[in-house]
Records
---
Amino acid sequence: MGRTTWVLAVLVAALGAVALWVHSRDPLSPARARRPLDVDVEAVTGLEIEGPHGRIALRRGADGWTVEAPFRYKADLYKVAGLVAYLASVRTEQPLVRGETPPEALARAGLSSPDSARFTLVLGARTVCGVVGRPPRIGDQAFMAVEGRRGIVALAARAAAVLFEPPDAFRDPRALPLELPDLIAVALETEGRRIALEQRAPDHWVLVEPAHGPVLPAARERLWRALERLRAVRWLGAVPDPARLGLDPPRRRLHAVASLEEGTREETLWLGESTDGATVVARRAAMDAVFTVDREPVEALFALGPEELRDQVVVRIRPGALAAVEVQAPGRTAVAYAWDGAEWRRPDGTAVPDSEAEALGRLLGMLANYRLERFSEASPEDGAPGLRPPALVLRFRFHGRRGTETVAVGREAEGWIRLRRDEESIAAAIPADVAGPALEPFLR
């Protein structure tokens, strides 16, 4: 290699080193301008906005985002998380202004106007600040400058417009910010009455207060529809006298528990008076913001009593859900039946005789279809008329459910046969002329 070639090689290497140094010193060089904020969205723990509506402070905790100022309330997760993700990852191929940003360029971009919005992303002890110009009425771009970095970059006007919204726009509009499929417990409390439901298996809910028993699926759907309609209508902020509105103490309470990946989460909604006949004032426990919700779903929720919620058949058997049945009379060996999808079989795999299978079918049909009547208190210790001891005990095992469901069947008393499901504090009855023929083959 000649001397000239060596000199050229050295010059190229030197120029390359200078270019790399300049590139590293310019925070908005084309490569780095693709992420002007250059932050990890997962590291963001807070967002503060100073705009036309004053200061709005949001914080991210274990259960999501919360509006901390001007009032404390659960934030709209999708709006806040979407805004933070956009700001943290916004990309631009080339800054509109490179190098030092002259004041006139800031003015043209609306970044020095009183109508601009300033934001601060909080990343633990570190903060990243920027200013965004108000998006134009016509057009699809707004402009942003990042503190400590040179240049002006373009943003989508629709995303930038979120920074100019009032505090109420950042609140979660749901009165109870939980997803219905995640719920595992719900309680409705009013003066002198508490109704509580719990999930025992997927799509299987039971009433645990004031009386035990499976929840009627149609009634649960009514409850869920009312919960879904509980949304904030108007924000009232902090009120000086919550007792005057029936919120201290609350007239009614709605408590819900959800199962999430990170564990369980509980939310309580306090419900007070109706000041206009169409809405009810409400407030979430541990939050200071008062708002109104439509009165209709509130009344629909609290109109559901134990009688409307409780399933009024002895056992609900869905096609393909029943796995096995066991029938036991006092002093006798239990007789077990297993359903293989086509016919009843003994535990050893032998087929059940047709006459016995037909009798079992009639018994199951009666239990699953006839509505119970004459409900009365009957604790497991005290029993009920005809249930001391029971004439027959039936045990049901279902696919996808843990354990078994037990039904105690009583003897005939005054033309009725009483039944009680396991863990229930009430018994009910079916007319003897309906239940007796179906039960008789198993009492012989």
---
Amino acid sequence: MNWFERLMHNTGLMIHHVVKPIKSDSKKQVVKKTVEEEKVNDKVILRRTTIEEVEIKRDAESDSDNDK
């Protein structure tokens, strides 16, 4: 890896580590994922994807208690 690629890689990691904690106000977990396919004709396939998720958001109260 030359110096420019290494610089770009490390810059990307730094930005990722700064931005990621900002976005993690909630935690999502996929519970169930189903895919249904139906062949309409020779050229068309209808695909229906259903994703069920559980999202847990942090409370503002628990965050303020942890700051004290």
---
Amino acid sequence: MRASDHFYSELDGISRRGETDTAYAERSFLKLTIPVLGETASEEIFRWWAERYGAEQPFLWEKLGHFAAFVLGEYDDQTMDLDSEDWAAARDIISAEAEELAMDELTRLMSDLVSHGALR
């Protein structure tokens, strides 16, 4: 099982229980993404999700999973649907922290951003 699949499973459980406290999801998201993005960028992406998708009921937990999948290199265009605003936010956040990222991870992330039209 891929790390993002396990995370989706956790998010599905949160959703089915109707939870509105994002603390557990945030801890799980950060645990997955900090090794790739570092603390600042991971927190910023979570904050972006919380402001855009976590403010109304029901929360769009799957979008948080899509962000995790992107960060982990497991994003699937066929089953996941981040939109242009999401990709632009990811671009801005990652670009701001680029100097802190490992070169191979930065290259992979930027390549994914290019393929989704977030960089020209």
---
Amino acid sequence: MRETVLMKGEMDTLVIVTTSTGTEVMDGEEELIESYPDDRHEEMLEKYLKKGWEIEEDGP
């Protein structure tokens, strides 16, 4: 499993979680924004970094 927490400004948070069942992107209230049945962690990370999000935490 890999989990990356992204921040934008003081309050906005996104979490990208990848497990053996795929990749999910959730907002700060844990509502699902995007879901994929495969590993798209790097793709989602790149997508949101280009939109101005910054990595707060990144780990296995």
